[in-house]
UniProtKB/TrEMBL annotation:
Main location as per UniProt: membrane
Name of the protein in question: Endolytic murein transglycosylase
Residues under site feature: Important for catalytic activity: E249
Catalytic function, reaction form: a peptidoglycan chain = a peptidoglycan chain with N-acetyl-1,6-anhydromuramyl-[peptide] at the reducing end + a peptidoglycan chain with N-acetylglucosamine at the non-reducing end
Single GO MF descriptor: lytic endotransglycosylase activity
Species in which this protein is naturally found: Thermaerobacillus caldiproteolyticus
Keywords associated with the record: Cell membrane, Cell wall biogenesis/degradation, Lyase, Membrane, Transmembrane, Transmembrane helix
Gene name in the database record: mltG
Topology relative to the membrane: Single-pass membrane protein
Coiled-coil regions, chain positions: none
Lineage top rank: taxon: Bacteria
Family membership: Belongs to the transglycosylase MltG family.
UniProt KW Membrane keyword: yes
Length: 364
C-alpha cells in the first residue's frame, strides 16, 4: 500500500517534470518561430525607404545567386543575403543578367530582382559634384553653382527658404529638427550637407534634388551612431555642431579625438570653448590670423564671449569628426595650439599654452 502511494507520487512528479519541460520547449519553439518571422519580415523590407541615393552595383558574367546576394548585402542594399537567397528560390526567380546597375536602398526585393533581370547598363551620370569637408554653406552653394550653372544667390535662396526647410524637417525627421530654425542660427542647413561626391543623371538637376541628396547622406551617416547618441543624450543638431568645431580645428596631422577632449573638458569646468573658427564664422570672413579685437565681435557664434556650443554648426563635418564628437580621447588638456607648420600642441594650463603660443606664433 505504501509502495503504491510512493509510486503514484513519483508518477505525478514525472508528469509535472514532463509538463514543465514540454511547456518550456513549446515556449522556446514559439519564441524562435516568432523571432524568425519578425527577422524575415524585416529583411524583406527596403533597407531605408527614404534613401534614394544611387548605389552602383556591378554583376559580373557567371555570377550565382549567392554571389549576387553577397554583393547586395555588402552594398547595404538588402538586409540579409540569406533571406534574399531563400526568397529568390521560393519565388522561382531566375535569369539574372550581368551588367552595371544603379540601385538604391529604398527599393524592395522585388524591385531589385526585376532590375537585375533587365541586364540594363547603368545610365551614365552627367553631373558629379564633390563637396569637401569643412566647407560652409555659402562655399557649398558656390560649388553647386559652378557645377550646374545656377546662380549662387538662387542656390542660397533655396537653402534658406523657410517653407522648403519645413518640408525637409518633415521628410528627414531623424536628422532635421526645429533646432535649425532657432532665430540665432545664420543658415538653417549649415552643417547638414554632407561632404561626399554626388552623381546625377541630369546636367542641371533641380536644386532641391541636389540638396536632398546631401541631407539624405547626412541622415545615413548620423543613423550609424544612433545608439551612441542616445547613450550620450546627443541630438543630431548638437552632434553636428560639435563635429563642425572639431572639423574646423583639425589639421592633417592632428588627432580629432584629442581636440574633442579639450572641448568637453572646457564644457565640464565651465570654460568658454574659445575656438577661433567660431569667431571667423561670426565675422563672416576668412583671416589667416585672429586678433584680440576680433574676439570681441558681438555674435551668438562667438565662443569667446558665450559659453557652451554655438547655436548650430559652422561648417560641414566628415565622419571622422562625427566619431570624435562621440568618442573623445580621455585627457586632462584644456588648451591646444595649431602651429604654422600644422602641428597641434596640447597643454593643461594657460601658462603652458601662452608659452607655446609665444614660441610658435609670437605676440599679438
Amino acid at each position: 500500500m505504501q509502495y503504491n502511494q510512493f509510486f503514484q507520487k513519483d508518477v505525478q512528479i514525472v508528469r509535472k517534470v514532463v509538463f514543465i519541460v514540454c511547456t518550456v520547449m513549446l515556449i522556446g519553439f514559439i519564441t524562435i518561430l516568432a523571432g524568425s518571422y519578425l527577422y524575415i519580415k524585416s529583411a524583406l523590407k527596403p533597407v531605408n525607404p527614404k534613401d534614394r541615393t544611387a548605389v552602383h552595383v556591378s554583376i559580373p558574367i557567371g555570377s550565382s545567386v549567392n554571389d549576387i546576394a553577397a554583393t547586395l548585402e555588402k552594398k547595404h542594399l538588402i538586409k540579409s543575403a540569406t533571406v534574399f537567397r531563400y526568397y529568390v528560390k521560393f519565388k522561382n526567380h531566375a535569369d539574372f543578367q550581368a551588367g552595371e546597375y544603379e540601385l538604391n536602398r529604398a527599393m524592395s526585393l522585388e524591385d531589385i530582382i526585376a532590375t537585375l533581370k533587365t541586364g540594363k547598363v547603368m545610365e551614365k551620370m552627367k553631373l558629379k559634384i564633390t563637396i569637401p569637408e569643412g566647407k560652409q554653406l555659402t562655399q557649398i552653394a558656390e560649388i553647386i553653382a559652378k557645377k550646374t550653372g545656377y546662380k549662387q544667390e538662387d542656390v542660397m535662396k533655396q537653402l534658406n527658404d523657410r517653407q522648403y526647410i519645413q518640408q525637409l524637417i518633415q521628410k528627414y525627421p531623424t536628422v532635421l529638427s526645429k533646432d535649425i530654425l532657432n532665430q540665432n542660427i545664420r543658415y538653417p542647413l549649415e552643417g547638414y550637407l554632407f561632404p561626399a561626391t554626388y552623381s546625377f543623371k541630369e546636367k542641371k538637376p533641380p536644386i532641391s534634388t541636389i540638396i536632398e541628396a546631401m541631407i539624405a547622406k547626412t541622415a545615413e551617416i548620423v543613423a550609424k551612431y544612433e545608439g551612441e547618441m542616445k547613450e550620450k543624450e546627443f541630438t543630431p543638431h548638437r552632434l553636428l555642431t560639435m563635429a563642425s568645431l572639431i572639423e574646423e580645428e583639425a589639421t592633417e596631422k592632428v588627432q580629432r579625438k584629442k581636440i574633442a577632449s579639450v572641448f568637453y573638458n572646457r564644457l565640464r569646468v565651465g570654460m568658454p570653448l574659445q575656438t577661433d573658427p567660431t569667431v571667423l564664422y561670426a565675422l563672416g570672413k576668412h583671416k589667416e590670423r585672429v586678433y584680440y579685437e576680433d574676439l570681441k565681435v558681438n555674435s551668438p557664434y562667438n565662443t569667446y564671449i558665450h559659453k557652451g556650443l554655438p547655436p548650430g554648426p559652422i561648417a560641414n563635418a566628415g565622419e571622422m569628426s562625427i566619431q570624435a564628437a562621440l568618442q573623445p580621447a580621455q585627457t586632462d588638456y584644456l588648451y591646444f595650439l595649431a602651429t604654422p607648420a600644422g602641428e597641434v600642441i596640447f597643454t593643461k594650463t594657460l601658462e603652458e599654452h601662452n608659452r607655446e603660443k609665444e614660441k610658435h606664433i609670437g605676440k599679438q
